[in-house]
Structures are given as structure tokens and as C-alpha cells.
Design a protein that fits this description.
This protein is about 35% helix and about 10% strand. The protein is of the alpha/beta class and about 450 residues long. The chain folds into 2 domains: about 90 residues; about 260 residues, Domain of unknown function DUF4159 (Rossmann fold, 3-Layer(aba) Sandwich), CATH 3.40.50.
Length: about 450
């Protein structure tokens, strides 16, 4: 073999060996550059060694290029498989949270000593150790509203009425079911709300719980509402102490915590709808009610409210009650009041259906018994002997009196005053317990 052929064969073998080593050890990008360099060196070397026989040179180069192409294809496709496999093994894991200064958020603001003293001074007042020293000064008018403690200044004069007794009722805990809804606050009052005084926080104006076996064993609370109107003379058309004394009598002789709600309100007051019982009096006043007041009164009466209206007369030291035409039919107050009720904005035709209250009506037996009808001492010598009422869907909504019932309540010198006060209790109890009234919770507890 000639020396030139040996050199050619050695060059081809060395180039193939170098190519295989490069492919196995280096990255594809480096392999590309090294192969290109080897090819250039090989071409230069072979070009010089094959002078006059260039056909063999091109044959060898073609063979090398084919082998390189095959090897490159193998490497390329095998690399794709590795990339796919590598992608399958990739997992993304969230980094752990940074817990730097995590307790700084829980720091409480510092309070200075001055602030601590101020907070301490704002705490609830101390309860006196002897609560039996508290006196009954809850009535407005005869007794000023306040409280009297031992060894302290008295804020109001005593009227001599029996002091209210503190009652601590045992309350039975009741397990509510999971299906209890907000309406359950009105359910089972006879069993769950053993201490009805707990409900007396402004939302309710009266709640009475009756004993079916004893009509006098009725307990609860009641807030009386007094109506004021334009052109009402407070000396002639109102009897301020009447309601105050009646509330006191109810507290003394029943288990009802009765009091006056505020002073007076107008018929247009939005709180009218919450009052279960409203009280209106007059003598020679002139009615001038606005349309808004009339509509409010009509909505109140149709919605379950109760109105007691009484034409009042005050005793005169010389002429007594007889000289003031007490208990006479057809007076100015009588005509104006009945015209108001039948006004289209109030009750319309329903306001003209007056009935005399018969002596066997439940009103006369709701607490005390009045077998002879209403007391007549407030209207001696008059020609009216009965109370009148208006019914709406079977419920008594209005009771009108020409009999001067309020005289019994407000005048300590009234004849047979005890019976007049007892009738006032009947009036309150009946109006609050009759079906359909605002305060009759028994309709929700059946």
C-alpha cells in the first residue's frame, strides 16, 4: 500500500474516533463547533496528501459526511427523548412561607397609667349592699321620679303608697331546637318567659301573662300612653294625676308593673303604633286634628290598638260634680269625639257604629267584678248610665265614657274612689288581654 493511502486511511479513522469521543463526552453545542474544526483540518490535510488523485478525496469526504449525518440524526432524536423524559419529571413546589416578624402583628397597644385610671373611672357604679332601702318613687306627679337610698338626700316626697316589692323569679332553662327561627321569640311565653319584666326594654309596651285558673293571678308590665292635642286646656281638659294614681293602684293590688310611658304624645307620633293602650280626655276643648293625625289614628285602631276616651269633670268645692253637668249626653266633647271617629280618614262608617256595653260584658269581670255595670259616682244627676264601645272585626277598639271615670282616679276625695280605681284595673286588663290586641301575646303562644 502506498504511503499516501495509509495517510488517508489514518486520517479517516482518527476523524471517526475523534467524532465518536466528542459526541459521547461533550454538549451538542460544543460538539458542533469541534466537528466543524475537525472537518476543516481534515479537508486541508487530505487536500495536500492527495495531489493528482482528488476523486478518492471526494469519495472519502462523502463517506464521512454520511456517517456524520447518521450520527448527528441519532444524537438529535435521542436528545429529544431525553428532553421529553426530563419534562415529565419536573415538579413545581411552592416555597415555604416567610415567617419573619410574625409576632409583631399580635402586639397589643400599650396603655398609659393615665388611660388606665380613666378606664377605671368609667366602670359601672357600685351597687349598694342594702337594696331594701330603695323606695317606691316611680310614679310621676304625686311622687317625683328618682331613687332614695339610706343616708342620702330625698329627691321626692312620698305619697304613702305601698312600695314595690322586689321579686326574684326562678327561670327555667329551655333548650331550643335547631329549627328555631326568629319568630320563636314570641312563642311559649307562658313557659319560657317566667320573668316578663326582662322584656320591658322599650320594644314592647305591655305583656301580660294570664293564669287560666285564677284571673287575678295575672302578671307582666304595662306602659300607659297619654294623648295630647291642640287647644287642650291642661287645667280643664286633662287630669294629670288621674293616670298616675291609677298606675300606682295597679302596682299595689296586682302583679302588673304599670307606669306611664313618657309624658304625652301626639297622634302623629311614630311611637303610637307600639302603644297597646292610649288615653284621651277632654271637656270644653275644640278638636283640630290634622289629616296626618287622623290617618295615624285610623291605622292604629285597625292594627290592634285600643283607645279609652273620657269626658272629665273636676270636683268643685262648692257645687260638687252635679253643677258641672257631668254625665250629660250630647256635650261638645261627645259630639266632637264621635265625629272624629267616623271621619273617612279615621274609621269612616265603622266609626259610627256605637254600642252600649252590656252589664254582662267581659270588661266588668276581667279582674274585679262589677255586676251592676260601671261606677256612677263621677256623674251624679246625669242622663248617661252606660259606657259605649266601637268594635272592629269583633275586637273592642274604642271605649267612650261620659261618666267621668277619671275623677275617681285623680281626686283623693272622690266618693267610693276604691271602686273607681278597681274599674280602671278592669279596663286595662281587658283591653290588653282581649284577642287581636297589640299586647295579647297569648294568641302567639297557643
Amino acid at each position: 500500500m502506498s504511503e499516501a493511502k495509509k495517510i488517508l486511511y489514518y486520517a479517516l479513522g482518527i476523524s471517526a474516533l475523534v467524532h465518536i469521543i466528542i459526541i459521547g463526552l461533550l454538549e451538542p453545542e460544543a460538539v458542533t463547533w469541534l466537528i466543524a474544526l475537525v472537518i476543516v483540518v481534515l479537508i486541508v490535510f487530505l487536500w495536500r496528501a492527495t495531489t493528482g488523485r482528488r476523486g478518492a478525496l471526494f469519495t472519502g469526504l462523502g463517506l464521512a459526511i454520511c456517517i456524520l449525518a447518521i450520527a448527528w440524526a441519532v444524537v438529535f432524536y435521542s436528545g429529544l427523548d431525553e428532553d421529553v423524559e426530563r419534562e415529565k419529571l419536573i415538579r413545581f413546589q411552592a416555597p415555604p412561607p416567610i415567617l419573619e416578624k410574625n409576632f409583631d402583628l399580635a402586639k397589643q397597644p400599650e396603655i398609659s397609667e393615665v388611660q388606665m385610671e380613666m378606664l377605671a373611672s368609667m366602670g359601672p357604679p357600685d351597687i349598694p349592699p342594702d337594696i331594701t332601702g330603695l323606695a317606691d318613687v316611680t310614679a310621676v306627679g304625686s311622687d317625683l321620679l328618682g331613687s332614695v337610698l339610706p343616708s342620702t338626700q330625698i329627691l321626692g316626697a312620698f305619697s304613702g303608697a305601698k312600695a314595690e316589692e322586689l321579686s326574684f323569679d326562678q327561670v327555667e332553662m329551655v333548650q331550643l331546637s335547631e329549627t328555631s327561627a326568629p319568630v320563636q321569640e314570641a312563642l311559649s311565653l307562658r313557659q319560657e318567659l317566667l320573668n316578663v319584666g326582662d322584656l320591658d326594654y322599650g320594644r314592647y309596651q305591655a305583656i301580660l301573662i294570664q293564669d287560666p285558673e285564677n284571673k287575678k293571678n295575672i302578671r307582666g308590665f304595662f306602659n300607659m300612653t297619654i294623648i295630647d292635642y291642640d287647644l287642650a286646656d291642661k287645667n280643664a281638659d286633662r287630669f294629670p294625676t288621674a293616670v298616675e294614681e291609677l298606675m300606682r293602684y295597679i302596682r299595689d293590688y296586682s302583679k302588673i308593673n304599670a307606669r306611664i310611658e313618657g309624658t304625652t304624645i301626639r297622634l302623629s307620633d311614630r311611637n303610637l303604633a307600639k302603644a297597646p293602650f292610649i288615653y284621651l280626655t277632654g271637656n270644653n276643648a275644640i278638636f283640630q286634628f290634622t289629616d296626618a293625625e287622623k290617618e295615624s289614628l285610623g291605622e292604629y285602631l285597625r292594627g290592634g290598638g285600643f283607645l279609652f276616651a273620657d269626658e272629665i269633670r273636676k270636683a268643685d268645692p262648692d257645687e260638687g260634680l252635679a253643677g258641672k253637668d257631668a254625665g250629660v249626653i250630647g256635650t261638645s266633647f261627645d259630639r266632637q269625639f264621635k265625629a272624629l271617629l267616623k271621619d273617612p280618614l279615621v274609621l269612616g262608617n265603622d266609626g259610627d257604629k256605637w254600642q252600649k256595653i252590656p252589664k254582662d260584658h267581659d270588661l266588668f269581670f276581667s279582674f274585679f267584678e262589677f255586676r251592676d255595670g260601671p261606677p256612677m259616682g263621677g256623674a251624679p244627676g246625669g242622663n248617661v248610665f252606660d259606657l259605649e264601645m266601637l268594635e272592629l272585626r269583633g275586637r273592642v277598639a274604642v271605649i267612650f265614657s261620659d261618666l267621668n271615670i277619671s275623677w275617681y282616679w285623680g281626686d283623693p276625695t272622690a266618693d267610693a274612689r276604691e271602686r273607681g280605681l278597681q274599674f280602671g284595673v278592669n279596663l286595662i286588663v281587658y283591653s290588653l288581654t282581649q284577642p287581636g290586641g297589640i299586647a295579647n301575646v297569648s294568641q302567639f303562644t297557643e
